[in-house]
Design brief:
- This protein is an alpha/beta fold.
- The N terminus and C terminus are likely disordered.
Length: about 450
């Protein structure tokens, strides 16, 4: 039996030549490495998910791990977060570069909020978000990937999970969220993907090729507009069907679906795993955001969103409710100036104002009416008229925020699950209702 060896160095030219994942090629990630010399180096990407297991393709770049599930695991018992992390930042070590992520030199911060059976609670997710905000400087976190979601029960302004993502956004983090797998029905975008400030990603079926001419929107990719606010979503799409990412050996998904394991040419064991879903499309976009922020480190979340959406390629004959602005293009996003379309006119959420904003210490806006019902700021601007452009959070000490100080008694839904992982054949859910759900 031949001993298995791994590459120990990474160069842009070699990596671009070796990459063979159709979905990664389709978004021009390898061309961006070789043309611009960017690879996400030094940029921290927080994966709020089921954890990230050790893997040769991430060696030395999982810079922090934290677990809020109570299971006290250092890896990924579920298997989902490892796959997501690989699509963001795997360097292809175990496949001679064939299966490389979008930003292969980016650093990964593993924030575990989902247990081994695919369950999460709001309080656990909030704790993970709070930790990211408090530690973003220490690990240079600039991008947050959230490949999970729940059914929206109200508009984003009264949704606490959407409000929490706004906290991340206004703290200077680019937040990328999976749209959900509720398609092809209209208005099936999940929360927090329905928030206007995040980058909401739907999924393309790339048909196994790097070209766009044979691409289509995956039937299960959630469509817009959002159910309660009629916000145009998704913002854009990325490849998400049959994506080869990193395997978390022994995880729930790995042991339940061994047929999904993938062994690289010449390797002696399977280091990879194939999955489908908007969960897989979101980290492709998160990786591109990391490339952008390596090249333009001072870019704000709204500028990142503008560039990624404004340079995407629309698919012919596909409604915007299914594809947003189109298929994301890494090279175009980093080299072309997106047309000016203005910032979102939607205000920050009411829940953010009532439950979060009032608790912050040192906020630059002094409220005259602390009930926020018809309240105005120190400039006389009503809360409902304050938009993305108006809010600047740079002077706020986010590290002082503690979610325990908030009253969540009005929350009517206890558990949310990550968006449904989509395979090609149906299967019964694992872990009971609200856990791992596989759909056609």
């Amino acid at each position: 039996m031949r001993d298995q060896t791994f590459n120990v160095s990474w160069t842009a030219a070699d990596a671009a030549a070796a990459a063979s994942e159709a979905g990664i090629l389709a978004v021009n990630a390898p061309q961006t490495w070789s043309a611009l010399g960017v690879s996400g180096a030094g940029v921290g990407v927080a994966i709020i998910d089921s954890g990230v297991a050790d893997h040769p393709d991430l060696a030395g770049r999982i810079v922090a791990r934290v677990d809020f599930t109570g299971e006290q695991s250092n890896g990924d018992p579920g298997g989902h977060g490892t796959h997501v992390a690989g699509l963001v930042a795997g360097d292809g070590t175990a496949s001679d570069g064939a299966w490389t992520g979008v930003a292969p030199r980016a650093n990964i911060v593993s924030v575990r909020v989902i247990d081994a059976n695919g369950h999460a609670t709001l309080s656990t997710i909030f704790a993970g978000m709070q930790w990211v905000v408090a530690n973003r400087t220490a690990y240079n976190v600039k991008v947050v990937n959230m490949s999970f979601g729940g059914v929206a029960l109200t508009g984003y302004q009264n949704d606490l999970l959407a409000s929490a993502t706004e906290l991340l956004t206004f703290a200077g983090l680019t937040v990328v969220v999976a749209a959900g797998n509720g398609g092809p029905g209209q208005s099936t975008i999940t929360t927090p993907a329905d928030d206007p400030f995040v980058i909401t990603v739907g999924a393309v079926d790339d048909n196994g090729t790097a070209g766009l001419l044979d691409d289509s929107i995956a039937t299960w990719s959630s469509r817009g507009p959002t159910a309660f606010d009629a916000i145009a979503k998704p913002d854009l799409v990325a490849p998400g069907r049959k994506m080869t990412g990193l395997r978390a050996a022994g995880s729930t998904l790995d042991t339940t679906y061994p047929e999904r394991r993938v062994t690289a040419l010449g390797a002696i064991d399977a280091q990879y795993f194939t999955m489908s879903g908007t969960s897989m499309a979101a980290p492709v976009v998160a990786g591109i955001a990391a490339l952008f922020l390596e090249r333009y480190p001072s870019a704000s979340p709204r500028l990142v969103k503008r560039q990624l959406t404004g340079t995407a390629h629309p698919l012919f004959g596909v409604p915007a409710s299914a594809q947003g602005s189109g298929v994301v293009d890494a090279l175009a996003a980093l080299t072309l100036k997106a047309p000016w379309t203005g910032y979102t006119s939607y205000p920050a959420s009411t829940a953010f104002a009532e439950q979060v904003y009032a608790k912050l210490y040192g906020q630059p806006i002094t409220w005259r009416d602390l009930t926020f019902h018809g309240g105005v700021d120190s400039r006389g601007i009503p809360w409902t008229d304050i938009t993305w452009v108006d809010i600047t959070w740079d002077d706020i000490t986010w590290e002082d925020i503690t979610w325990e100080a908030f009253d969540w008694q009005d929350v009517t839904w206890e558990d949310i699950t990550w968006e449904d992982i989509t395979w090609e054949t149906s299967a019964a859910p694992l872990g009971g209702s609200g856990g791992w759900t596989l759909v056609n």
